[in-house]
Amino acid sequence: MRRDVQAIVLVLVGGVILRIALSGTYTNYVRPGLGWPLTVTGGLLVGLGLWSAFRDGLIRGDERTLAEDDDGHGHSHGTHGPRIAWLLLLPVFTIFLVAPPALGSYAADLDSVSVTEPEDGAIPALPDGDPVDVLVSDYAIRAVWDEGKTLEGRRVRLTGFVTPRPDGTWDVTKLQLQCCAADARPYRVQAVGAEPLPADTWVEVTGTWTPGGGVRVDDAVPLLDVDSVVVIDQPAEPYE
Amino acid sequence: MTEPEVNDGLAEPQPGESRTRDRRGIGALEVLTAALIALLVGQRWIAGLFDNSPALQTFATIFVSICVQAFPFLVLGVVLSAFLSAYVPPSFFARVLPKQPALAVPVAASAGVILPGCECASVPVAGSLVARGVAPAAAFAFLLSAPAINPIVLVSTAVAFPGDPQMVWGRLVASLIAACVMGWLWVRFGKSEWVKLPTRPSSEGQARADVFRAAAQHDFLHAGGFLVIGGLTAATLNVVVPQAWLDSVAALPIISALALAALAVMMAICSEADAFVAASLTQFSLTSRLAFLVVGPMVDVKLFALQAGTFGRSFALRFSPATFVVCVVSALLVGAWLL
Predict the structure, then answer these.
(1) Do residue A55 and residue B50 have CB atoms under 8 angstroms apart?
(2) How large is the ipTM?
């Protein structure tokens, strides 16, 4: 890869990282905490690319300086950079042209449900509020490992997307990230008595816990007796 | 997986060759421009293709997210290692190492802690160490340990396994053992004719800022390219490999460790990002995932190519398989002890 092209690739990669970091769409791919490291990374790469472009004569357009420079110390960091670097254009084009959305019901169906038993065992009471907002993962853990005790008699509101079940009903679903979308883990709560909705619709579901989803097994899908469903836009942070 | 370029930026170009390449490469900018225009014109069609296939869309999201997740780590490693190559003289490493190769091996392996960078960065560093008179066994111990046990890798391992801090210790200990054993094996059995001694030009006489810039640029482009291969492979595996297949292998103790070790060789993820992939393989035991983390930075398809390019093919053909065996055994023993 020629030096001037190397500089362009650096600016393109840095630019696309800056773009997703500053626009906030990076939360479709990684945890929110990575926002400022991505901004710094993008800035550094753009700066390095511009420095190289200036130093190697792309901006000055001075081809002779470039050639003489090589003869002086023509080594591996010189004119022909690594050819493998062309591959860096793949994520750049994918983000600019396709802008892949946050993972949805297809990814949720790929992985089997696994509600891990909380380590400390003690599950605190729900905070005040009617209805009270609860994370889908929190609801699942309370329903499965606390046998619903802390949920009983409370109206809760879950936010997630629709993952249809084979029998025509659907689960309100949220994916949990440790780091990036490659390690996404699905949490699902079956919406009992809700009208059918298309897959990947984002919803706020209000209802009450009802037994029957299975307890003390990590592949249980708990139930929610639905009062109301509100269709919403995808939240800024699509993962838990 | 085939390796597109074995000599990738590591072999010495002849003065004449660099000019021929220059002329041959004149199309590169035009190709890039043409590709950009074609992609911009065809954007609607391409985006439509992805919209209509949830599998393709999921693949694209996972691929992008692996790259986005790894870039900050990669850039941090590249900037630090460029700083070292520009401002720490290579002779320094030769001066601080013991003269006895058998003693120099553990010292060099432990010194890997201070070289932040992924495996792509440690191969050229080890090459220049050998070229400057460091005992090959010590340089190889350093080559193996540096990408596995440096602070960035250990911190990202701790972040990826928030509930299992012993994974960090397991990784550190098992990797150090594997690197030292390989160094000592080389002292005992290694033959100098297996190694094609790398000759690298001196960077003396260049402005330090230029050395820094050139090293950072080269290392990022190089490692970034291999990162993309890793992202593509991992995203494919995520979408294509049936959960049931992984689950069935995951249940078998030794087989599952071997399967993940083989997966590490095939995926060739940067060591700064591999802990996050290991964390996602939740159906596997911690020991199996430790094997993944110990093998990954020391043996994989891209490292094999890098080593063959730097030290010669007959070296890589012997060194990589031996390292694989040593890594798996070390991970199993340390896993049984610590995890």
Answers:
(1) no
(2) 0.89
8 Å CB contact of A181 and B54: no
Which residues in chain B (201-230) have CB-CB distances under 8 A to chain A?
A: 201, 203, 205-206, 210, 213-218, 220-222, 224-226, 228-229
Q: What is the residue whose two structure tokens read 């946050």?
A: A102
pLDDT digits (tens, 9 = 90+) for A165-190: 998 899 999 998 877 787 788 999 99
* 3-state secondary structure at position B163: coil
Q: Which of A28, A77, A179 is closest, CB to CB, to B218?
A: A77
* Shortest alpha-carbon distance between residue A32 and chain B (Å): 11
Helix intervals (H) in B113-165: 119-131, 136-149, 151-160
Contact A226, A160 (CB under 8 A): no
Instruction: Summarize pLDDT for B233-285 with one digit per residue, the tens.
Output: 778 877 887 666 767 788 888 899 998 998 888 776 767 768 877 876 777 88
Q: With b meaning 16 or more CB within 10 Å and e meaning fewer, what string describes B304-329? A: bbbbbbbbbeebbeebbebbbebbbb
Stated pTM of the model: 0.76
A147: its two tokens: 């046998």
